[in-house]
Amino acid sequence: MVDPVVRFLLAAVACWIPVRVAAWNSTYYNPVIPGFHPDPSCIFVPEQDNTFFCASSSFNAFPGVPIHASKDIVNWRLVSNALNRPEQLPTLAITNKSTSGIWAATIRYREGTFYVLTTLVFDDQPEANSSRWDNMIFTSTDPYSSASWSQPVHFNFTGYDTSPFWDSDGTVYVTGSHPWEVTPGITQTTLDLTTGEVGATYQYIWNGTGGEAPEGPHIYWRDGYYYLMIAEGGTGLTHMETIARARDIGGPYESNPANPILTNANTSEYFQTVGHADLFRDAEGNWWGVALSTRSGPEYTVFPMGRETVLYPVTWEEGEWPVLQPVRGEMSGWQLPPTNFDVPGEGPFAEEPDYLTFSPGSTLPIHLVHWRLPINTSYAISPSGYPNTLRLLPSQLNLTAYDGNYAGPEGQTLIARRQMDTLFTYGVNMNFSPTVEEEEAGVTVFLTQNHHIDLGLVLLPYTNTSTNTTALTPCFRFRSESYIAVPPTTVTPVPSAWLNRTLHWEIKAFNLTHYSFAAGPADARSQMQTFGYGLAADVSWGFTGTLIGIYTTTNGGEGTAPAYFSEWTYVGQGQYRD
Ligand SMILES: *[C@@H]1O[C@H](CO)[C@@H](O)[C@H](O)[C@H]1NC(C)=O
Ligand SMILES: *[C@@H]1O[C@H](CO)[C@@H](O)[C@H](O)[C@H]1NC(C)=O
Ligand SMILES: *[C@@H]1O[C@H](CO)[C@@H](O)[C@H](O)[C@H]1NC(C)=O
Ligand SMILES: *[C@@H]1O[C@H](CO)[C@@H](O)[C@H](O)[C@H]1NC(C)=O
Ligand SMILES: *[C@@H]1O[C@H](CO)[C@@H](O)[C@H](O)[C@H]1NC(C)=O
Ligand SMILES: *[C@@H]1O[C@H](CO)[C@@H](O)[C@H](O)[C@H]1NC(C)=O
Ligand SMILES: *[C@@H]1O[C@H](CO)[C@@H](O)[C@H](O)[C@H]1NC(C)=O
Ligand SMILES: *[C@@H]1O[C@H](CO)[C@@H](O)[C@H](O)[C@H]1NC(C)=O
Ligand SMILES: *[C@@H]1O[C@H](CO)[C@@H](O)[C@H](O)[C@H]1NC(C)=O
Ligand SMILES: *[C@@H]1O[C@H](CO)[C@@H](O)[C@H](O)[C@H]1NC(C)=O
Ligand SMILES: *[C@@H]1O[C@H](CO)[C@@H](O)[C@H](O)[C@H]1NC(C)=O
Ligand SMILES: *[C@@H]1O[C@H](CO)[C@@H](O)[C@H](O)[C@H]1NC(C)=O
């Protein structure tokens, strides 16, 4: 068998398309980082071997704040997670709601150090209450290592999307978004990046062009102007990017008459919600930008992967406003650096398939995530007597937990990866023999506690209609949770010939709108049966994107049966870009 990494590289070479000869002579495809990678912030660091780095939001997913790196701007490797140890942020365990957690990060590099500023948001505090917005700074001198990311330094800022700017006199300013339900606008103060000390007062420097929720600000200094670029309109169909400039960092800021400078609002494009952007220059001096976008079309009903990272070329003449090219699936741009997969780091390239074996002595790959902080004893790789398995112990809470918003420190046993392809096949083997009613283990397409589709093996009272007797029976239960209509829950007894055998489980996104959920004996795949069809629209909502993975729960009961998972695979089978 060809090593998966080699296979991926061979596939990448086979797909390589020669660049065309023209002023804009490269062709590339969006999204450049597919799946749940919203609110991108990216930089180019010549001192780090001409490498580009991006950070994105992770909400309640842990590890969080994924850091991607690229040498060619289109092939991105997950190289570390800035938030990777529970002790960095114990309060991630107690966030309330799926819109809480880690919001937009800004990544910047200064004199050998990488800085990531981000906000932990609590949705159960009043908007105006500064305890709702926990702003913090992570630093690292080696972004290829998760362990290198520091404990955060917290700072007091009533708001979110905080972004640092180093002025020529050495003063560091932090610019962020004041809560939109109170007095929306872009506010700024000074910040000591070492101590977290902020200025005594903050000021509103610009309120945008009138769109809802001015946010995601970044400042760039160029040709004697401070350029302040922000997102407006909210992160849905009316999302857009606008820009203003001033001679002094505190303003007054003059709005670009050409605003918005980037949006797909009011278009019929498949790529919608474009905004929340950042700009950077490559080694040739050409400007590029990133933003988030949702592959939803204007219908905005089927977009399970949520807000993804897209790339576009920018022209920025001296003394002029930058011009950002509209986001499409196929793009032309500045000449790209040569295709280069020689990027160090801990994780896979975007669109690289998974072939995970959980071999003895290995650790969990860094692209697998939990929902909030994990109970670490619930996850064991190759425990004694079960080599090449991942053992999960059940949480009492199921994937919905209390009210679909809160779960709390007791945790939910879930481990999953991001869906990163429109079409894919996910497979995993499972050994699980439940002994207590409602003990359950299975596979899930999980967006949030209020939006998930599960196929589980669960012990349920089942009435055998041929004998009229009811007994606890291992069953396949297919069920969905969503704010909108879901397919009916189905319960099917596990065929007796399959009991206590290793079962193979499969989730396929076999078309844009539907997922199939199937299972069967791992050693007799011809017997695989489909137990349910989930609706992608049921997991299209909010700020995050779908995760594909495995869970175990007692559904509130007392069970403790372990589930042993093995041979985890995920293979992308196509992107729809229109
Ligand atoms: C692409 O255009 C740049 C100038 O914009 C030029 O230097 C480069 O040689 C061109 N590359 C190709 C492959 O045509
Ligand atoms: C979660 O937030 C809701 C209100 O949004 C509140 O009623 C509930 O008490 C909160 N739960 C916890 C555990 O904080
Ligand atoms: C903010 O919320 C916390 C927790 O609910 C509360 O203790 C505190 O008094 C609130 N502060 C203000 C200024 O409302
Ligand atoms: C945080 O800053 C706000 C003003 O920006 C101030 O009202 C508040 O007292 C500060 N809180 C702390 C804990 O310093
Ligand atoms: C922006 O809005 C805030 C809050 O409504 C207001 O206090 C401030 O004067 C405005 N600032 C500018 C620059 O317009
Ligand atoms: C979209 O169209 C509406 C209605 O004409 C208009 O109010 C809005 O400004 C437009 N949005 C953008 C970003 O062009
Ligand atoms: C598991 O979590 C506990 C409590 O947080 C901690 O003391 C322990 O070091 C962790 N173990 C591992 C292997 O991470
Ligand atoms: C139901 O009872 C029949 C007759 O005893 C048996 O053959 C069958 O396996 C039972 N079905 C289940 C799901 O237990
Ligand atoms: C099962 O029970 C129902 C009602 O309790 C009865 O109508 C039916 O005839 C019974 N069937 C068998 C096979 O005993
Ligand atoms: C399967 O395992 C369970 C729990 O260990 C046991 O109670 C049951 O008898 C086994 N069933 C079969 C068919 O082997
Ligand atoms: C996907 O397949 C399902 C089940 O066959 C079908 O109902 C649905 O219309 C298909 N969706 C598309 C977009 O073709
Ligand atoms: C989750 O567990 C609760 C009991 O703790 C149960 O009432 C609920 O039906 C379960 N829901 C899902 C979707 O798993």
UniProtKB/TrEMBL annotation:
It holds the Pfam family Glyco_hydro_43. Keywords: Glycosidase, Hydrolase, Signal. InterPro entries: ConA-like_dom_sf, GH43_C2, Glyco_hydro_43, Glyco_hydro_beta-prop_sf, Glycosyl_Hydrlase_43. Residues 1-23 form the signal peptide. Residues 362-570 form the Beta-xylosidase C-terminal Concanavalin A-like domain. SUPFAM superfamilies: Arabinanase/levansucrase/invertase, Concanavalin A-like lectins/glucanases. Belongs to the glycosyl hydrolase 43 family. This is Xylosidase: arab-like proteininofuranosidase. It comes from Rhodofomes roseus. The lineage of its organism: Eukaryota, Fungi, Dikarya, Basidiomycota, Agaricomycotina.
